[in-house]
Design goal:
With 177 residues, the protein is of the alpha+beta class. It has six helices and six strands. It is elongated, with a radius of gyration of 24 Å.
Length: 177
């Protein structure tokens, strides 16, 4: 997939792993000639203030006379390889061709992942009780299980852990009190 992209006359896919490693070493040493290393098509690698190399894609979206420039963060190098970054750039460009904002697509995907998560409060509560059972007396375990099932699970049991907000927990506590 090296060469010119179909969506632009500009050169893309210019980077190699060797050039990336050299850029990172020079940037960390303070001898880099530039602040970011571009591959074309909006994809570039930049070092954060903490010195971590991160892949990003710059793009524009909106009506022609009101274009908004945005930056989509892909992830850190080497966790995200050059090939992974190239694939992510192509995904961003595909979303743009469909008229969809890549950042909005990411938010929707994360929300869907949270909603479909099997890690609900109820399953975590059951695992926690099972873990504690060996250290508790039978009576204490049974009272704790019944209290959770009666007071907390009906309010929070089906919610994914990541979706539970402090206000929800406060409501559950108020209902118990």
């Amino acid at each position: 997939m090296r060469g010119k992209a179909a969506y632009s006359g500009r050169s893309t896919n210019k980077l190699s792993d060797r050039a990336i490693r050299a850029f990172i070493a020079n940037a960390r040493a303070g001898t880099a000639a530039q602040k970011k290393l571009s591959d074309g098509g909006g994809l570039y690698l930049v070092l954060t203030a903490a010195g971590s190399p991160v892949w990003r894609v710059k793009y524009r979206i909106g009506p022609p006379n009101e274009l908004i420039e945005r930056v989509h963060s892909i992830g850190p190098y080497p966790s995200v390889s050059l090939d992974g970054a190239l694939a992510a750039r192509e995904a961003v460009k595909a979303h743009l061709r469909e008229g969809r904002d890549p950042m909005q697509v990411r938010r929707q995907n994360r929300a869907a992942a949270v909603a479909s998560s099997s890690t609900t409060f109820g399953t975590v509560a059951d695992e926690w009780l099972a873990h504690r059972k060996k250290d508790w007396s039978g009576v204490h375990f049974e009272k704790s299980r019944q209290a959770l099932e009666r007071d907390v699970v009906p309010l929070l049991g089906k919610l994914p852990i990541a979706a539970i907000e402090p206000a929800m927990v406060a409501r559950a506590i108020e209902a118990i009190a």
